[in-house]
Amino acid sequence: MKIALLKENKNEYRVCLIPADVKVLVANKHEIIITKNAGQEAGFTDREYLEAGAKIANNNSEAIGNSNIILKLSKPTGREFKTISPNQILVSLFNLANNPKVLEKLLKFQQITLGLEAIQENGIFTLMIPNEQIKGKFGALLGAYNLSKLAKFGLGKIFASIEHNKNKAQFTIINASYAGLEAAKAILGLGGNLTVLENDEHLAKQIKDDHYLHTLAKLNNVKFEVIKADYTDLSKIVTTTDVLINTNSLPGSLTAKRITQKMVSTMKPGSVIIDLAIDQGVAGDTEKKPTTFQKPYYIVEGVKHFAIENIPALFANSVSVAISNILTEKFLKNLKGENVLSILKEHPNLMNAIMTYEGHLTNRIVADALHLEYKDIHTLLKIKAL
After folding, report:
1. Distance between CA atoms of 67 and 64, rounded to whole angstroms?
2. How does strand 120-121 pair with strand 89-92?
3. Distance, CA of 307 to CA of 304 (rounded, Å)
């Protein structure tokens, strides 16, 4: 199997494979082609890849060549759309529900694509967990920092109680998602009060019954509540919220717009909104557009809005190691031969993550979000669904 690792676009510093895992794949008879400096931003040099047994290509087009599988986290460029052939598989983090123009090109060029966000094992989105964990932990720390006067327009409020002042910062998390759970752990660990709003009964119960969260709340003497309610209750909760964190429970889906202009206008000046699901669409009326690493926030109604795209890339080394380990050990290492489609048929976890195939959209979540026609991949390949 020939596997190409491409150099990423601007502001994407992660890579799908690290040198240690390249060595494992080469030992398993795979040929690995790396674009020059592909791992540099994540802290991995070409020399390390070469020593692991990879070949170095001068550019992405050369790396793509006649590879069977192409790994790239950021969206394909115009040249790459034309270079990748219909008999190759492009593996990426697409978020197609929020990128209809990318989807249009993938369908136009009839490319076979596999979405890392769609790979599941026993109902768990395996590749998304490390990325969502980073988002949640960072979101909590970003909120705590921006309450201080070290940050512009901060309330000058510490998240935890101190002697002679028992008032703690109030955090609110929308959705009991992977990112939401990690943010909850960090917030309660820091000593802030926390409300989690979730209207799905199963998810609400899951986080409400989490023993670790209750232990943290007890140790730090903080208020922790999970409200299983309609999101209209958010309008009451935001008036006392210092930091509002939005997350999305379903990877790959389109973010629901729940934060209205009226809600934001009732929040305290200097409070903070952090949208950790911006990669899947804006969460409210006051979100103008995604923000960047260079300009991470804007202010509306006196409230700081953070809608930073691709937060995990800020911690490229850590996340790259996790993604590479999962991809290698669970999927790539065990692939044999060069007939990609026959390999996918034997690996249902990968088969069910096929996003597009020969001009058809094969992911139901994306199809439902964009109101487009869905085609079942098993039917297209004339095999029994697994």
Report:
1. 6
2. unpaired
3. 10
The reported pTM is: 0.90
pLDDT digits (tens, 9 = 90+) for 235-245: 999 999 999 99
Q: Is the pLDDT assigned to residue 346 strictly greater than 80?
A: no
Q: What is the CA radius of gyration of the chain?
A: 22
Beta carbons within 8 Å of 211's beta carbon, 6+ residues apart? none
Assigned token pair, 26: 């080469």
Token pair of 49 as six digits: 């890849």
- Could you tell me which residue, 14 or 279, shows the higher pLDDT? 14
Give the type of residue at 256.
Answer: A
pLDDT tens for 177-224 read: 899 999 999 999 999 999 999 988 888 898 999 999 999 999 999 999
Give residue 384's pLDDT.
47
> Which residue(s) pair with 196 in the sheet?
173, 226
DSSP 84-112: S-TTSEEEE---GGG-HHHHHHHHHTT-E
What tokens were used for 286? 């006051």
Handedness of CA 236, 239, 241, 243 (dihedral sign): positive
C-alpha count within 13 angstroms, C-beta hemisphere, residue 325: 10
Look at residue 253 and give its three-state secondary structure.
Answer: coil
Q: How many helices (H) and strands (E) does the chain have?
A: 16, 17
Helical (H) or strand (E) element with 350: helix 348-351
Name the token pair of 78: 């115009």
As a whole number of angstroms, the distance between CA 377 and CA 355 comes to: 9
